[in-house]
Amino acid sequence: MLLAEGNQTSAVTFTLLGFSEYPDLQVPLFLVFLTIYTVTVLGNLSMILIIRINPKLQTPMYFFLSHLSFIDFCYSTTVTPKLLENLVVEDRTISFTGCIMQFFFACLFAVTETFMLAVMAYDRYVAVCNPLLYTVIMSPKLCALLVAGPYTWGIVCSLILSYFLLKLSFCGSNIINNFLCEHSVIVSVSCSDPYISQTLCSVIVIVNEVSSLVIILTTYTFIFVSLIKMQSLAGRKKAFSTCASHLTSITIFHGTIMFLYWVPNSKHSWLMIKLGSVFYIVVIPMLNPLIYSLRNKDVKDSVRKLVNHATSWY
Asked: Confidence class of residue 306 from pLDDT cuts 50, 70 and 90?
């Protein structure tokens, strides 16, 4: 009996509607998303390369930034290639295994990025509030632990939610009104009671969002107090500039999450959910390397040197 159920589950397929309700926009959307994905891949991989090869960037801040770039690259790559494929082919189906795997990795990198941004907030707190002890406090061992934490928790959350999705049964029409296998749309096409899975997802999302925001708000409260106490205007300006890029990333990332969970899952709001998901999964991974490179003198200098070195070969 269990074997039969397992075979039945493995044979399930889903259809990702994506943006198929706009047939005239398929090619323009493909070109737009392909451009965004290309910039995302080049931007994040370049950021990782620049940080690895430049001795001036061998600091905890850039160590965390390289992992943020890696997460953004993986996050976008989990979803965008399938999105591009579905814009140019008629068959928009995805296997049950493929759908669960896509959800697993998307969840893993989303949770990891949530707490990586919190870790980077702590790094900025130490740099601004304890500059003389920065290198002592942010030791290589602590940095490794701070990076391992978000990845580990991301894996735990993904395994829990994926396990309960696997416990659901599916029958009849398995049409997903989105461009990715997101938790809410998977449970919406289930023909079994998704109460446990939905409750767990809500609890995990709320716990992750609240705990990460508490860490970020607490650290930036201490940073703000330290900035007020600074006598030197130049020192205050320098301290603020080290936090500006990170604050921009946090605002965009968490602002989009809150927008997505405030939009009701009604028939009329599916377009807003899709657009929010596109921004969250496709656009933000492209923006982060641009935000940090445009606002960071060390990164801009490294990019300039790399470009000059590359052009000197021609």
From this structure: low
